[in-house]
From TrEMBL:
Entry similarity comment: Belongs to the GMC oxidoreductase family.
Keyword annotations of the record: FAD, Flavoprotein, Monooxygenase, Oxidoreductase
GO molecular function: monooxygenase activity
UniProt region (Disordered), positions on chain: 144-163
UniProt-recorded name of the protein: FAD-dependent monooxygenase
Cofactor (UniProt): FAD
Pfam families hit by this protein: FAD_binding_3 (PF01494)
Organism for this UniProt entry: Streptomyces xantholiticus
Domain FAD-binding: 8-41
Length: 163
């Protein structure tokens, strides 16, 4: 493998929602930045088989692990799209590839209800400010469509930016 060296004013770790927006804004401001991602750039095409499915998970469903919370089956070990990190009080699924968490969420963004927001974050952040200012800005930057707040909707399903 050829060794490369690059100097930058800012190093961004991760190409998920936060990292990609940070890279965009820094580039627009003329700041020399480099974005690092530990996972692969997964090819997306019309076949729709880039990622493993929940009904038939394989090694792509886990990051360097024989197990995944999606299945009880033993998986081939590979650098898949999801890393499961189990904790004592919280479990986390992290996207591992170019796009970060959008690999797991298919480029969608759901806003929590005020009750769930407060249950999770308490009074650390203002739900109204997030809903009125920050969620719309994030949706616009990411390119996510607004989703229905109803779990059952008669509207056509929203398509992800990569669909």
């Amino acid at each position: 493998m050829e060794r490369q060296q690059h100097r930058a004013d800012v190093v961004i770790l991760g190409s998920g929602y936060g990292g990609s927006i940070a890279a965009l804004k820094l580039a627009e401001a003329g700041v020399d930045a480099v974005l690092l991602e530990r996972g692969s750039r997964w090819p997306v095409d019309d076949t729709g088989d880039t990622c493993a499915t929940q009904t038939a998970p394989d090694g792509r469903a886990a990051w360097l692990s024989e197990t995944s919370p999606l299945t009880g089956a033993k998986l081939d070990v590979c650098t898949g799209v999801l890393e499961f990190v189990g904790g004592s009080d919280m479990n986390v699924l992290a996207g591992t590839g170019v796009g970060g968490a959008s690999l797991a969420t298919n480029g969608t963004m759901c806003e929590p209800s005020p009750e769930l927001f407060r249950q999770t974050l308490g009074d650390v952040l203002d739900h109204s400010e997030m809903t009125e200012r920050w969620y719309p800005q994030a949706r616009e930057l990411i390119g996510c469509p607004q989703t229905s707040t109803s779990p059952i909707s008669t509207a056509r399903p929203a398509r992800s930016p990569t669909s």
